[in-house]
Amino acid sequence: MNLLSLLEELPGSYAGPVQPEPGPHGLIGVGEGALAAHLAATLVPATLVRGGTQFVVSSADAGDAARDYADLAEVAGAAVRRVSTGGSAGEVDVLVPGGVTVTYHAAQYLAHASGHADQAEEAERLLAALRDRCAPHLLEGNPARDLAWTLWGRVPLLLAAEGAEALPHAWQSLLGRVGKTLAVPLLGDPLAVVTGAFEAQHEKGDAKVALFLGDTDPTLDVAREVLETRIDEVLHVPAPEGGNPQHPNGYAAQLALWYFGAWVAAYLAERYGLEAGDPPMLARAQAALAGDTGPDALTAPLGGEDVRRTELVRDWRENRPDEGEEEDYDEDLDEDNPEED
């Protein structure tokens, strides 16, 4: 099944456990479980607990780290619930599908298990509404397709209000993994970054578009005013309508924005003429980290695959000038050289 079909069927597809686990709750995510844990941190803010239930969300390629955290939690006195995409049967309590959608399945499990079934149900409603607006058969008035067009050929800068740092994390992951596009999250104090990042080389603001994800705050409002004078375009990507106004950047809103970002990334890959699914190299790297293959599998071409996608224009070691000669300067090769007046 291709990713667009998978996204279309995703709302309401969670079929894991729904019973709450004893509190207090702690939450750690590694590997493919890191993003789900980050999104669910609004529900389970504690990292490690000495009693109650410790959730460890991981994937097979991060099995060593997951085992260490689970052992640490058990020694501290917590009951551990291991959520993973794979591994030995004795090390997985809740098995979730791997791939891009692991975030949805693992996060929904965490919402139910932490006693927040109401927010899990709210998230399902928001995802279903987005599906009806972003489905592939909607060629006109599709907000995900429209945003993908806007991002085409540009470098996105990702910003979110304090407490919603999972959103830049989510969109960077989706745009890279699915959309095959590098995005830059601006974390921490955005004012310190945006007021200085484009001053030395003004052309660095070209082909940049800033995305403000979720509800904004006064700091982001000022950052927007600054960026509007320095880059091509600034856009606000709000949480979908219909969410609980008491939780403007809460779990349901953030999971819905993750889902919307997945649609945008899939359509962006489509615009570039690329496959929205995982590249073969990712599966090979994960298999090597999980111990399923040797490390040599990462560098050996498989089925004619070129593991080095970028062709080098020239090898500097072969073009160094002889001793005593001056190296010719090619202005076209210096992308950072501003044009002279």
Automatic annotation (TrEMBL):
Domain called Bifunctional glucose-6-phosphate/mannose-6-phosphate isomerase C-terminal: residue spans: 142-284
Gene3D superfamilies reported for this sequence: 3.40.50.10920, Glucose-6-phosphate isomerase like protein, domain 1
InterPro entries noted in UniProt: Glu6P/Mann6P_isomerase_C, PG_isomerase_N, SIS_dom_sf
Region described as Disordered: 294-341
Keywords (A to Z) from UniProt: Isomerase
Compositionally biased residues, Basic and acidic residues: 305-322
Annotated Pfam families: bact-PGI_C, PG_isomerase_N
Keyword Isomerase: yes
Biased composition (Acidic residues): 323-341
Top-level division of the source organism's lineage: Bacteria
Domain Phosphoglucose isomerase N-terminal residue range list: 3-115
Family: Belongs to the PGI/PMI family.
Protein name according to UniProt: Phosphosugar isomerase
